[in-house]
């Protein structure tokens, strides 16, 4: 993890742990490749907040132990992206879980300690506490040194792409949500939360490229809750976005999906990897749309993509390796478990891992080279 102080909004940030640049023809240094890892919804229900208080030993809230199981995977990547589903409350509380979330701001520091560089913050819960909650959340992420995309405090901030560095690349993260649970955008702030609109996504991707992005990553909060199959809107939007090109170069290089609360498939669409749904990374015992406890709500994946520099200047950075790392939030222990690393002596792990694998590969991603990682 890069322990540097927060970078001014709009300036590149990130870490590079990859190999040193090699010499290119003519003596110039070729840019280094990089690995990017992304994960699903951080969704602190009341039980999660209680667990963090317990882990802090009665002094505030500590979310770091919950995430310690995936810290080796996350911190080893050159660039790590999370999805912060909820907004933060005032220091000291009060804090609330479902249906209107206000989470302890200590989560931001835990995300940074785990190795996350940036988080998408556009979700159906972004306006749970109005403009004030949105502002508190971005302020806390800034203090922790975690960048963010998808919501904004000012029009100027909304207009700037979030640019990060990884290896020899500048990476743009863009983020959008399907809705804000019917809550209107704050008066006079139509830019506060990015809503999904395919023309805007494409325009923003092209603007990010013009601002210097070598790789454009789009985080989408979309889909139908509790449905493992991507819905028609996801499929249609994925085809449209991945087909968009400027010249011969795609405008978008990777799509990362959240919201469904269950793992969904990975698929290569028009030559671009799409993760329809990462599943939840942190969540309490999940109750589904028919009012029943559903263990799938604590299953998820981390997507890890290795990017190589283009063969010639101005070409596309290609994904040379695509991996999914199955994970599970053990609500009994209050810990995220990396199911790709080992069974850890728990007989449940192999079965959960197999369920996740079946869903992830359901649309033929294995034939396009997706493998399970550790």
UniProtKB/TrEMBL annotation:
<protein>
    <submittedName>
        <fullName>CapA family protein</fullName>
    </submittedName>
</protein>
<dbReference type="InterPro" id="IPR019079">
    <property type="entry name" value="Capsule_synth_CapA"/>
</dbReference>
<dbReference type="InterPro" id="IPR029052">
    <property type="entry name" value="Metallo-depent_PP-like"/>
</dbReference>
<dbReference type="InterPro" id="IPR052169">
    <property type="entry name" value="CW_Biosynth-Accessory"/>
</dbReference>
<dbReference type="Pfam" id="PF09587">
    <property type="entry name" value="PGA_cap"/>
</dbReference>
<feature type="domain" description="Capsule synthesis protein CapA">
    <location>
        <begin position="35"/>
        <end position="285"/>
    </location>
</feature>
<feature type="region of interest" description="Disordered">
    <location>
        <begin position="1"/>
        <end position="28"/>
    </location>
</feature>
<feature type="compositionally biased region" description="Low complexity">
    <location>
        <begin position="10"/>
        <end position="28"/>
    </location>
</feature>
<comment type="similarity">
    <text>Belongs to the CapA family.</text>
</comment>
